[in-house]
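Here is one chain, start to finish.
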Amino acid sequence: MIRVLVLTALLLPVFLPAHPHVFVNSNVDFIFARKRLSHLEVQWRFDAMFTSQVLLACDANKDRRISGAEVSVVRTRFFKNLKNFNYFLALWVNEVYLRQHAISSFTAFIARDGHLNYRFRVPVTVPSGGAVTIKVMNNDTSFFVAFMSRAGTSRIRGLRPSGAKVLNNAKVQFQLSYGVQ
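Its structure:
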């Protein structure tokens, strides 16, 4: 009997798959300036548990909001380290994988529904002329964070080239195509 218990204790971690601890609804908007893609605007909406953890750690005045200096605290304590994980983003331009190096305009806020949201920009450089296809996927290989997206939520904003279209589904997550196809 003791052998069975010891063997079970040793082998159990092998059979238990990793599972997420944080759940995020993700959305990506494609932002154009003068018919050229300028950047991606990423927004993450977190689950209630993670929201409460961040509020407990960062909401200094206990008003259940994230504002002013509290945004900097959230960035430092909960967002800055995601650079080591490429901000959980996988990005391809014309099937070439790009590693993002710059994130700008980070903000954190509590939405009307009471959930924590992050919003930030990812600058993107695309080749001029010809067809352009950009694919964006959320990617956490540790399975600590589960990302979800709803079909049809991604948008194109700004002055866009003719024929620009967005595909947003479970397989691709977010895709933008424009130019000569």
